[in-house]
Design brief:
Layout lengths: L3 H20 L6 E4 L13 E4 L30 E7 L11 E6 L5 E2 L4 E3 L5 E3 L4 E2 L4 E5 L10 E2 L12 E6 L5 E7 L5 E3 L1
Parallel strand pairs: 9-10
Antiparallel strand pairs: 1-2, 3-4, 3-13, 4-9, 5-8, 6-7, 6-11, 11-12
Length: 192
């Protein structure tokens, strides 16, 4: 049978194998070691360890590209925003139905924050933070809210645009006049 010394040497050998396998070794190296404490392995036979094969690296997934943001002009940029139409005399007594149409003819979105729209009597609408996109049309109502038209309204219960004529002035956030539209009245709408 096996002696206690042989069993101890074998277990030491297995332990060293597991230790080296756990730590790994360079693929081109071979390690020669004597197992166990001095004299435990009486034949002094060398033990040869070979390195494990190098694992195949897993490819790193590339990031998914994000869509390009819509170009927006610098704050305060005038771009090419114009007054298009004034609907100054809606049928009946629905002053809330009055509105002014503005349109972005620029190729970039334009930030309208702090722009103003005013009439001759100085009723002023100040635009909230809103980027009007290229070719987008918005309406500024006297007292109606229409999300499909950008939700702009003066919140005024009385008529703003005179039926006998008026002037609309659009100014950028620096107070510079961007566009004006004057009409003489006598109808319902004025094209600018």
């Amino acid at each position: 049978m096996f002696t206690k010394r042989v069993v101890l040497a074998f277990l030491t050998f297995v332990g060293v194998l597991l230790f080296v396998a756990f730590l790994g070794a360079a693929p081109e190296e071979e390690a020669i070691a004597a197992a166990g404490p001095e004299g435990a392995f009486s034949s002094n036979l060398p033990i040869i360890f070979r390195a494990l094969p190098t694992p195949t690296p897993t490819p790193t997934p590339s990031p998914t590209p994000l869509p390009s943001p819509t170009a927006t002009s610098a704050p305060g940029s005038t771009g090419d925003i114009r007054l298009v139409q004034i609907y100054y005399n809606p049928p009946g007594s629905t002053e809330g139905g009055e509105y002014v149409v503005i349109r972005n003819f620029d190729t970039n979105g334009i930030q309208l924050q702090n722009w103003t729209l005013r009439d001759s009597a100085n009723h002023v609408f100040t635009f909230p933070s809103f980027v009007i996109q290229p070719n987008q049309t918005c309406r500024v109502y006297t007292n109606e809210n229409h999300p499909e038209w950008c939700s702009f309204n003066y919140g005024n219960g009385s008529a703003i645009w005179n039926n006998t004529g008026d002037t609309a002035t659009l100014r950028n956030s620096f107070g510079q006049t961007v566009d004006t539209c004057t009409y003489t009245g006598g109808g319902t709408t004025a094209n600018c």
